[in-house]
């Protein structure tokens, strides 16, 4: 059905036709509200239906699978109750990968936010060719993950990489960047490369900070740093909170280690350097390499619950710090 | 008078100048740091395999191997994969832009019981990790016989994307109420109002949404990897997995050349649509 053919509310509906049958074809007042209600559901229906079928149903299906030994091929799968979950909690790989993922999130998210905010402050100053600087700094953020992976593999290759080229110039030995223990730093750098994402959103926030506030602070003799800390950061706090929450969720499901691996395919997930074997990699290896769909589903559900808890905690602990000066619902 | 006021005046002026110099140096250095890796990828794509294997590093290729780009084109069915990527990205971007605009109009302009809750779910679902639904979604599509077809992208497109819905909702909410009032008095349905009045007003958001959705799809790696067989798969998957010799060793110089050709279209689209794209990104941040 194209948008053209979507029935215009109130025309094809028998109730509305009945309304129009009233004297002089005028609709009674009450049907206006009814029409608006019906129209609302008609307009939001694609998303509601999509959300149910493409999000709720798959998640429920994964929940069911997580209680089974389903592997997609063998007909002999069975219900094992909480078996997968008890196994998961006693699997050292779960805990190790979870720990690495947590470490990755608590380093990469604050670093990206600080880097992005720093860049935003820089390109918010009245410099020449500001637009060009903004564009070039933002550019890496639009490079698709596969592009990032291949670019960083080229940069950090043991022989041909520019990174080793530079450090050998200074008389150091070439490092195996893409192996343990350095792989985690390459992963971190690949994430920081996209700090332009944070920059662009922080920049919009910076431009919303009322100029008078800065001027007032300057008249009161506040230093630039003090102004930044006491005025800019509090006013940006909703934006920074949004960045933190989406950043944590994105870092938890990053597939970059896979794309940085020497093999680079989902099948090669088991060949990853240990330091980049994150939780999602553990899911992939159970899913692709071992075909343990039930077990992988249990891992995913545990991750989902953990994300809910962590997001809830972030909101709870920032509720006193985050400052909303405009209610987004209020400005209609 | 001038003689006495000059010294205290010129000192800050010098300081301003030094500040400027530092600022520009930092900006140029950072820009170099951000653009450098991409330059290195291009250089790697212009070297011979021997140069790539040489240690210490060969900074510049002795002979620029331009034919690497042609070879990368012919070693695999580059055009075929690019066509697949393009088809999927177009299907998804067109559908998701229209459906998100449609849903965004509902949230911006119409009222009904439960709207607040639904909007809360919509915003909350932006925070839902997609990976978690993707693996079970694959199994469901497999059961429905839709693996190795482009149908999943049609459904994902029709279902609207919360992020883009939010974008359209913000835009539509800002348009004046008079726009639809006259049309309602004339007995025009909301579908018509959306199609005839609101959509034509929203070119900036439509183009931003299209670019964002196109970029998502072009850059997506896991979904096509999961759902499509090799010959139906996208350029993202092909660039990552198919540049190997028959013996299985990766052909890194051709892979680098291919990844340049894979990334450049997205960079060009971004540069062309920059304004709308950036505006779109930043509106969402300010929720």
From TrEMBL, chain A:
Lineage: superkingdom: Bacteria
**Region named Disordered:** 1-28
For this record, an example GO cellular component is: plasma membrane
Gene3D superfamilies in alphabetical order: MetI-like
The UniProt entry, under Pfam families, shows: BPD_transp_1
The record's subcellular locations are: Cell membrane
Q: Which UniProt keywords apply?
A: Cell membrane, Membrane, Sugar transport, Transmembrane, Transmembrane helix, Transport
Provide the ABC transmembrane type-1 domain boundaries: 98-314
Q: Which GO terms describe its biological process?
A: transmembrane transport
* Spans through the membrane: 39-64, 102-123, 135-156, 186-206, 235-256, 301-326
Q: How does it sit in the membrane?
A: Multi-pass membrane protein
Entries under CDD domains matching the protein: TM_PBP2
The UniProt entry's sequence similarity note says: Belongs to the binding-protein-dependent transport system permease family.
What is the official name of this protein in its record?
A: Multiple sugar transport system permease protein
UniProtKB/TrEMBL annotation, chain B:
Q: Per UniProt, which keywords does this protein have?
A: Cell membrane, Membrane, Sugar transport, Transmembrane, Transmembrane helix, Transport
What are the ABC transmembrane type-1 domain coordinates in residue numbering? Answer: 82-273
Which topology term describes how it sits in the membrane? Multi-pass membrane protein
- Give GO terms for biological process: transmembrane transport
The keyword Transport belongs to this UniProt entry's keyword annotation: yes
Identify its protein family: Belongs to the binding-protein-dependent transport system permease family.
Protein name per its UniProtKB record: Multiple sugar transport system permease protein
Originating species: Streptomyces caelestis
């Amino acid at each position: 059905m194209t948008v053209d053919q979507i029935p215009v509310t109130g025309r094809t509906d028998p109730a509305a036709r009945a309304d129009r049958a009233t004297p002089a074809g005028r609709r009674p007042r009450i049907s206006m509200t009814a029409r608006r209600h019906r129209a609302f559901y008609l307009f939001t229906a694609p998303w509601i239906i999509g959300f149910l079928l493409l999000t709720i149903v798959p998640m429920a299906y994964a929940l069911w699978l997580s209680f089974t030994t389903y592997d997609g091929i063998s007909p002999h799968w069975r219900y094992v109750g909480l078996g997968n979950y008890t196994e998961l909690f006693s699997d050292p790989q779960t805990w190790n990968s979870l720990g690495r993922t947590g470490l990755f999130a608590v380093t990469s998210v604050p670093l990206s936010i600080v880097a992005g905010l720093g860049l935003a402050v820089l390109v918010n100053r009245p410099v020449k060719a500001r637009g060009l600087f903004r564009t070039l700094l933002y550019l890496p953020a639009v490079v698709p993950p596969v592009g990032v992976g291949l670019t960083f593999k080229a940069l950090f290759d043991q022989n041909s990489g520019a990174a080793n080229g530079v450090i050998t110039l200074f008389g150091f030995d070439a490092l195996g960047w893409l192996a343990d223990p350095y792989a985690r730093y390459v992963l971190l750098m690949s994430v920081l490369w996209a700090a332009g994402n944070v920059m662009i959103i922080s920049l919009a926030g910076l431009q919303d900070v009322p100029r008078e506030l800065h001027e007032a602070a300057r008249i009161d003799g506040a230093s630039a740093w003090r102004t930044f800390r006491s005025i800019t950061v509090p006013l940006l706090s909703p934006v920074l909170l949004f960045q933190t929450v989406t950043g944590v969720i994105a870092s938890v499901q990053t597939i970059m280690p896979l794309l940085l691996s020497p093999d680079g395919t989902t099948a090669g997930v088991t060949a990853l350097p240990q330091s980049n074997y994150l939780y999602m990699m553990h899911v992939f290896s159970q899913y692709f390499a071992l075909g343990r769909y039930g077990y992988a589903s249990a891992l995913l559900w545990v991750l989902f619950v953990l994300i809910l808890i962590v997001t809830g905690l972030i909101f709870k602990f920032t509720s006193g710090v985050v400052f909303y000066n405009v209610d987004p619902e209020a400005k209609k | 008078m001038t003689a006495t006021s000059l010294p205290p005046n010129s000192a800050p002026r010098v300081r301003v100048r030094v500040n400027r110099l530092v600022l520009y140096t930092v900006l140029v250095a950072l820009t170099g740091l951000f653009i450098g890796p991409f330059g290195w990828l291009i250089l790697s794509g212009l070297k011979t395999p021997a140069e790539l294997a040489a240690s210490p590093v060969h900074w510049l290729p002795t002979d620029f191997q331009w034919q690497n780009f042609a070879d990368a084109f012919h070693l695999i069915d580059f055009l075929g994969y690019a066509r697949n990527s393009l088809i999927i990205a177009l299907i998804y971007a067109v559908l998701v832009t229209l459906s998100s605009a449609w849903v965004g109009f509902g949230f911006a302009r119409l009222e009904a019981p439960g709207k607040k809750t639904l909007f809360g779910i919509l915003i909350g679902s932006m925070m839902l990790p997609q990976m978690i639904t993707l693996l079970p979604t694959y199994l469901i599509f497999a059961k429905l016989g839709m693996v190795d077809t482009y149908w999943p992208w049609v459904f994902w497109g029709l279902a609207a994307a919360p992020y883009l819905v939010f974008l359209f909702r913000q835009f539509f909410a800002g348009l004046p109420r008079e726009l639809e009032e006259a049309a309602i008095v004339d007995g025009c349905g909301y579908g018509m109002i959306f199609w005839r009045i609101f959509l034509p007003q929203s070119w900036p958001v439509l183009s931003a949404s299209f670019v964002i959705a196109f970029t998502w799809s072009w850059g997506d790696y896991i979904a096509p990897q999961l759902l499509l067989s090799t010959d139906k798969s996208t350029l993202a998957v092909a660039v990552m997995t198919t540049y190997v010799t028959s013996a299985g060793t990766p052909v890194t110089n051709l892979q680098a050349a291919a990844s340049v050709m894979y990334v450049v279209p997205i960079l060009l689209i971004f540069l062309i649509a920059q304004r709308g794209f950036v505006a779109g990104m930043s509106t969402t941040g300010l929720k």
